[in-house]
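Lab manual, section 2.4: Encoding a predicted structure.

Procedure: take the sequence of the chain (76 residues), apply the prediction step described in section 2.3, and record the output as C-alpha cells. A sample record is shown.
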Amino acid sequence: MRLKRHATAVITASQDSVRELAYRVNDGIQVSLFWHPVSDSVSVTVDDVRTGEHFELPVERDRALFAFNHPFAYAG
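Recorded output:
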C-alpha cells in the first residue's frame, strides 16, 4: 500500500498586508500607527532605540489617534 503525501498550505501575514498610517520619533522613541487590513484592526508600536524596549498595543479604531499621540497613557 502506498501512502499519499498531502501538502499543507500555511498562510502568514506579510509585511505587504500591514499598512503604516503614521510615524513619529521624539527623543529616541519611535511610534508607529498600523492598520491590519486582513483583520481590519489597528495597532500602535513603540520602540525605544536607547533601551531596546518595544511594545505593541491593539487599539480601538475610535481611539487610534489618541493612542498614537499618547501611547504610554493609552497603555496605562
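Check your result against the sample. The chain has one domain: 15-75.
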